[in-house]
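Technical annex B. To support the medicinal chemistry partners, we prepared a structural model of the target in complex with 2-acetamido-2-deoxy-beta-D-glucopyranose, based solely on the information shown next.
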Amino acid sequence: MMGWKIAMCNAFLVVMLVLLSSWVSWGEASVSYDHKAISVNGQRRILISGSIHYPRSTPEMWPDLIQKAKEGGLDVIQTYVFWNGHEPEPGKYYFEGRYDLVKFIKLVHQAGLYVNLRIGPYACAEWNFGGFPVWLKYVPGISFRTNNGPFKAAMQKFTTKIVNMMKAERLYETQGGPIILSQIENEYGPMEYELGAPGRAYSEWAAKMAVDLGTGVPWIMCKQDDAPDPIINTCNGFYCDYFSPNKAYKPKMWTEAWTGWFTQFGGPVPYRPAEDLAFSVARFIQKGGSFINYYMYHGGTNFGRTAGGPFIATSYDYDAPLDEYGLLRQPKWGHLKDLHRAIKLCEPALVSGDPTVMSLGNYQEAHVFKSRSGSCAAFLANYNQHSFAKVSFWNMHYNLPPWSISILPDCKNTVYNTARIGAQSAQMKMTPVSKGFAWQSYNEELMSYEDNSFTMVGLREQINTTRDNTDYLWYTTDVKIDPREGFLRGGKWPVLTVFSAGHALHVFINGQLSGTAYGSLESPKVTFSKSVNLRAGVNKISLLSIAVGLPNVGPHFETWNAGVLGPVSLSGLNEGKRDLTWQKWTYKVGLKGESLSLHSLSGSSSVEWVEGSYIAQRQPLTWYKTTFNAPSGNEPLALDMDTMSKGQVWINGQSIGRYWNEYKASGNCGACNYAGWFNEKKCLSNCGKASQRWYHVPRSWLRPTGNLLVVLEEWGGNPYGISLVKREVASVCADIYEWQPTLVNWQLQASGKVNKPLRPKAHLSCAAGQKISSIKFASFGTPQGSCGNFQEGSCHAFHSYDVFERYCIGQQSCTVPVTPEIFGGDPCPSVMKKLSVEAICS
Ligand SMILES: *[C@@H]1O[C@H](CO)[C@@H](O)[C@H](O)[C@H]1NC(C)=O
């Protein structure tokens, strides 16, 4: 039953309901819900979903991403709708290329999956301005995400536009389409708490506005405990097993199970161990959860200037099961696939009713689900972070690793444990395919007084001036220095101090770069304070203020400023300190090279470039261009920008995004154990290196020959270090315990074909087109370490390598059972052993 049926209370509504349900049943399709689950066509379902944001990949990548999601055991694809991509100017809509929402949904439908459409239209998503168009801020009288007339009118107009578009394309499930759920607003709970009464009124309005659109499928609101009926409130987080919906008749749903975390320029790269992610999902399901969505399943790329923050990196990889490039991230993808199969084996029992919970020890529990038809499924949990638990459940004994859950689809045999990975791991590599490009360069003119510049007294806010059409705004002023100034006769240089609301700043004195300052995601404000080289007479101070993505979250983030708001002052003069804030400032929006479209095929020929030994190197504000042919093969491609500092890159006129290799990741990248509560600061990599070194180049943006590569370097770099690389599997590993349970073995036993315990098998598989060329490591015994750095332990079977060398070398994939005989006998009979193996792919 859908909640709105329950909420109904008068005869008029009954009539409406009868009309509506007859229309619904005419299509023989319906989506409803009760306390247990979402039901599709009358069938309660355990639904596994994953987020893939369509503009963060290309239409050419979509079918493969969706197929890999399906093979990974997903039922649903979830996406936000990106308002600022779809309505770049008021009333001018765009639904093409990466923004072809209908095409994306139809591809999901063709693959046989459902869609959870998060219309928002607030998205957050570390996306520029949280998905709001920048023009929306300048609608008179507007205030975002509160009980404000102009905002509500704009939100209703866009939401209605999307719903009508979906209806016209017959994309709702009740019309035979794939959309089973819609979302209105997004994580509004914390905002409502902040705003009080107007927040509550807005939330009520948003709920009613959405429900009145009559989509025929349920609406959800995430992270919004008081979501008005019939809307289902849902949970977002690293764990959501503690969560209960606000009404007993609503199902327990997890809209964002965070698979990792985003990267910011200047921050390390976060990752989340597969064992803990699987554990959190099993915890949620055993507590009666019936819908889980991985955020992200494919994170992808913030192409162009779509990254929010500010300071969100161009890569939105998110440590997702499909990596930024669309390749399987192993073992995460495979370990979750195995989890989904185990959960689906339990589905009949899971949807039948609530679990019985039994204590098995101080930190151990069993959750048992039984259906009336007799099926039984059990989840055995060990919450202890430090030690194994031997538990007894219905007269059988089970060994549970720390911080893990075992799944028993027949209440007897374990088919899966969240801390025991059966899937292979893979190490990836970035192999150069073209380097030594023949570059040409063009020096950006420093701000000159020309056509589109204007002068006024005082300092202007940046976004109001640029309307975010560019990252760049020039602020230029003249400073007269008296020949009698003391510093001109051997005194100390004067100090220029500039306060900026953000996000980055290059300071030029008389055309020379004098210094750079920038903020961070946590504190975007910038203070520049440095002695500057001035001469007698008129000096030109040019401040190039740079936005690095607009904020996407926080109370009234639309009011946060950027740019040089002052004060700006010069100290150390004869007069003491001179305030420059209220001088005349000349403004220019954007760079000259931008107005000439130097990034495009046609625009790049509008200026004279220099080549050969005249190329500007380590010069600020330099444009570089070259052409190259597409490499053969179909591996994903990237640009290695490690010798460059900060700027933007384009290929054939399409923006790859912002790069900022000079911003090194600061943080603590210590060892990371999967066991114990995870948060976004627990497991980090890349400390001391560029937060992002490689930038995804979609294959579909290339033609066979003559591709135009244009780089805008703001700060100074060496373009000869730029190379095009391909991403491929370097090696694959298996790391498996003897007697580790597997679903395949359970199925063999359940079918009656075998009636003895079976050992697991190690599967190794290189990418299509690759072969296993050597065995880097193999040990059956007590090896240590993880894929890429295994070491032998005190117990090691001497023939560990032989079998892999015999069966695997020269093959694309191979399978070896984990039995002592194969490795020349049991090297240490009374010890629990495992097999660790790493095979090189080439
Ligand atoms: C934008 O700038 C204009 C012109 O200076 C000013 O009148 C207006 O108040 C500004 N708007 C906002 C929202 O800051």
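Notes passed to the chemistry partners:
The pocket of 2-acetamido-2-deoxy-beta-D-glucopyranose is lined by residues 461, 464 (CB under 6 Å).
Residues 497 and 529 are 4 Å apart (CA to CA).
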